[in-house]
UniProtKB/TrEMBL annotation:
EC number: 5.6.2.2
Residues annotated as the enzyme's active site: 98 (o-(5'-phospho-dna)-tyrosine intermediate)
Keywords tagged on the record: ATP-binding, DNA-binding, Isomerase, Magnesium, Metal-binding, Nucleotide-binding, Topoisomerase
GO biological process: DNA replication; DNA topological change
Domain (Spo11/DNA topoisomerase VI subunit A N-terminal) ranges: 69-135
EC class of the enzyme, as a word: isomerase
UniProt gene name: top6A
The protein's name: Type 2 DNA topoisomerase 6 subunit A
Assembly notes: Homodimer. Heterotetramer of two Top6A and two Top6B chains.
């Protein structure tokens, strides 16, 4: 990240703190308003095809002891972040929680990490600066890319160029916390295959799927981290690569697809920055469970509730998803990606994925 970007992020944070002092001078009770981050305040933007926050707001105001504590914690956090940017340092979300233990005012210390995480999200929304630009890192997600992509990344030791097949081991290239520090130099890829599980990701790499089909295999590691969603969006937008999501055949995995394609509640203020509405779901589909007679588990009550909820979800109100979800409710079964191994270890790379990718006009 450039010094100019750091300085701009620092100024926006300090401007936010200055607003509290301005409110004092005007005789107003200091306050800060942020969108209410609940499902009831999430709206589907039809034009942009992503989730965004609605008009409902919550106010953090010093007119109560609880509200005053929240603002005090915000001011201390802003000071910490501003100093961090000035010193060109970084820290993790977990470290921020523990760092507050050293602050001189006990009222400013966080009670738990959920509280400190929530405050960072508040500051993102109000300041218009992402946590990556604050130099705040989540714990390592370990998500990776394997495939024909040549890139240049900025590190503390300067720039380095990496080819995500030739210069990495079987584990692939680890996605950095802030993918906007990456420059794409060249790519021979034809599409992106975003994969939910590590076992399936390893199967695809071992079978040479990335080489045979010029695929960029992005390991999502379950619910994907922001960095994973951001680099997937950049690869799609800047290199014009189709994005496909390969996940387990259950309602929770469909939501993983939804977060890649349309965004999530926690990061709805960043949907345009993180989501790739053009992403397509490649499987496991409920139709695959029937067609290939895959090994299955019965749907639990929570699975059924989640599927019924998805039928009311604007992200899944298409003919395709309604048909698949209704079929799954009818058969009462779910199945994992790796259940395809029941047809042989090479079935997924020699038959299933090529056939699905062809049906979807990706290859």
């Amino acid at each position: 990240m450039s010094a100019d970007t750091d300085q701009q992020a620092r100024e926006q944070l300090l401007d936010l703190a200055a607003q509290f002092y301005d409110q004092f001078e005007l005789g107003e009770i200091p306050h800060m308003s942020v969108p209410t981050r609940t499902k009831s305040n999430i709206e589907y933007d039809e034009e942009k095809a992503v989730w965004v926050y609605g008009d409902r707001e919550s106010t953090r105001s010093a007119n109560s002891v609880r509200g005053a504590r929240k603002l005090l914690k915000a001011v201390y956090t802003i000071e910490f972040l501003a100093n961090q940017l000035e010193q060109d340092r970084s820290s993790t979300l977990r470290e921020l929680y523990y760092l507050s233990e050293s602050w001189d005012n006990k009222e400013a210390q966080f009670n738990d990490q959920d509280e400190s995480n929530g405050l960072i999200e508040d500051l993102e929304i109000v300041s218009g600066v992402t946590r990556e630009d604050f130099h705040m890192r989540p714990e390592e997600s370990g998500a990776t890319i394997m495939g024909p992509l040549h890139l240049r990344e900025q590190t503390r030791r300067g720039e380095r160029e990496i080819h995500c097949q030739e210069d990495v081991g079987e584990g692939g290239y680890q996605i950095p916390n802030n993918p906007d520090t990456i420059e794409f130099l060249d790519a021979d890829a034809d599409f992106i295959l975003a994969v939910e599980t590590g076992g399936m990701r390893d199967r695809l790499v071992e079978n040479g799927f990335d080489e045979e089909y010029n695929a960029l295999i992005v390991h999502l590691k379950g619910q994907p981290a922001r960095a994973t969603r951001r680099i997937t969006k950049r690869l799609h937008d800047e290199l014009d690569l189709p994005v496909t999501v390969f996940a387990d055949g259950d309602p929770w995995s469909y939501r993983i697809y939804g977060s890649v394609a349309y965004g999530s509640i926690k990061s709805a203020h960043l949907s345009e920055y993180l989501a790739t509405p053009e992403a397509q779901y490649i499987g496991i589909q409920p139709a695959d469970i029937v067609e290939y007679d895959l090994p299955t588990d019965p749907l639990s009550d929570s699975d059924i509730n989640a599927l019924e909820s998805e039928l009311e979800d604007p992200r899944f109100q298409t003919d395709y998803w309604e048909e698949q979800i209704e079929l799954q409710l009818e058969i009462g079964k779910k199945s994992e990606q790796q259940s395809l191994a029941a047809r042989g270890l090479d079935f997924v790379t020699e038959t299933y994925l090529p056939e699905r990718l062809s049906e979807m006009d990706v290859i």
